[in-house]
Fold this protein.
Amino acid sequence: MSQVHLIDHPMVQHKLTIMRDKSTPSNIFRQLLYEISLLMGYEITRDFPMEDVVVETPLETATLKKIAGKKVAIVPILRAGLGMVDGLRDLIPVARVGFIGLYRDEETHKPVPYYCKLPKGVDKRLVILTDPMLATGGSACDAIDLVKQKGCQDIRLMCLVAAPEGIKMVQEKHPDVDIYVASIDRQLNENCYILPGLGDAGDRIFGTE
Ligand code: PRP
Ligand code: URA
């Protein structure tokens, strides 16, 4: 069974509360999503392996720690997942970036694929899939299926807000994929929107309401 890592740090929770407020404008919403992604990045990279390196400081020779060559691919689920890329990329500047385009059909609420571009050698990298919203879980599960079809075996899912229904679906279909999330909200409404949620993340990021 995959683990759910709830990032309940006060700074993350404070910023998320401002994002949820319907009066928060698109530019602030985007900025806060960037900041939260960077902060969540600390947790998602917490278990990265380290190695000893010898460094000449201005005062002496010291044996110190560096990350031992962990290769990462950040893969946003378009559109809203794009809002989480820059924060992660500022934390892991050598990460490659891929893209998976999926939109949720308004009637069926099922994901419809429209684009997939992944970096060369993605199967040898840790894939961090990003999407602020994990609602029914359909989009995340299809995105995980896609990267698994390309041979990826080391996959993590980073979301901002999740519904219990979405977490359950990912855990059942992909028990090998850990989920990192800033909030587990109460439930879905009749249109499969998360409650209390924050509305349509893509529209709020890109001002397309
Ligand atoms: C939203 C969101 C997720 C998906 C979550 O995307 O960003 O990708 O819905 O819902 P699910 O868990 O029920 O699949 P949307 O389809 O609105 O596309 P957008 O990001 O382009 O706005
Ligand atoms: N997609 C969103 O953007 N928000 C939700 O609450 C559910 C799906």
